[in-house]
Each structure stands twice: as C-alpha cells, then as structure tokens.
Specification:
With 137 residues, the protein is of the alpha+beta class. 32% of the residues lie in helices and 33% in strands. It has 4 helices and 7 strands. The strands form 2 sheets. Strands 3, 4, 5, 6 and 7 form a 5-stranded antiparallel sheet that branches. It has a two-stranded antiparallel sheet with strand order 1-2. Strand 4 and strand 5 form a beta hairpin.
C-alpha cells in the first residue's frame, strides 16, 4: 500500500522526488531520462538502494526482467552477492553520450548511453504519465 501511495504521489505531484539515506540525498527529476539513469549510479556509490524502487514504471509490463531485478534490489539487500555485483557494475558508471528519443507503438522512449563496468551499454526508458521510467537494458 505504501508503494502504491508513493507512486500516486509521484504521478500527482510530480516531477521529482528526493530519496535520502544518512546525510546524502538524490533528487530524481522524472522529467529527465539522464536524472533517472544517474540515480542508479548514485545508489551504487552510496548504498542507498531504496532509490531504485522508484525507477520502475507503475505499469508492471512496461519493463524487462533486468530492470525489475534492479528496481527490487532494495528488497533483496540481504543477498550480498547480488548487491556486490550491482555495486561493482554501476559504482563507476556514467552517461557517455547524448540521449536519443523515438516513439514506439505510441510510447515515447529514450535511449541513454552509459559506461557499465567494462563496456558501453544503453538504458531504455519509457515516458508514462509525463515521467520517465526504466524500461530495458
């Protein structure tokens, strides 16, 4: 129920949300695909995995399994091997090119290129209700 209310608050109020752990926080600007992707790097660098649950779309079928796993990491923080793999892959990540946009089956998509561990990768985001959410990588 809390998760539903949080999603509704984001959709109604907004365009951004601040998530904090300790003395640090990251303001996710859901109107910016770059801000959403940078939230992943922030989580890996700070251990603030709670931020990840906010990055998935409110429609379950709008993201792939990898994205769903990433978003649910805050619930699986007891799985140290999974946490270590996530941190190793994303802690030094950064966006390494311009965002490209396209429309597919009526949905606006954004492709955000980033450095992912030892290789280049691209994160796909979908725009729903005016906000960007992770869809695929």
């Amino acid at each position: 129920m809390k998760k539903f209310l949080l999603i509704m608050m984001i959709l109604i109020s907004g365009k951004s949300i601040a998530v904090a752990q300790g003395n640090t926080s990251y303001d996710i600007d859901f109107t910016s695909p770059e801000s959403v992707v940078n939230a992943i790097f922030y989580a890996a660098q700070t251990g603030d995995f709670n931020i990840l649950q906010h990055l998935c779309p409110p429609i379950a079928d709008a993201s792939d399994g990898d994205v769903k796993d990433l978003c649910s990491l805050s619930e699986m923080h007891d799985d140290q091997e999974m946490v270590d793999e996530f941190v190793a892959a994303f802690k030094d990540g950064y966006i390494n090119g311009p965002v490209t946009y396209r429309v597919y089956q009526g949905y606006q998509l954004a492709e955000v290129p980033f450095e992912f561990g030892p290789r280049d990768e691209e994160m796909s985001l979908v725009k729903l209700y005016g906000n960007w959410y992770l869809a695929d990588y």
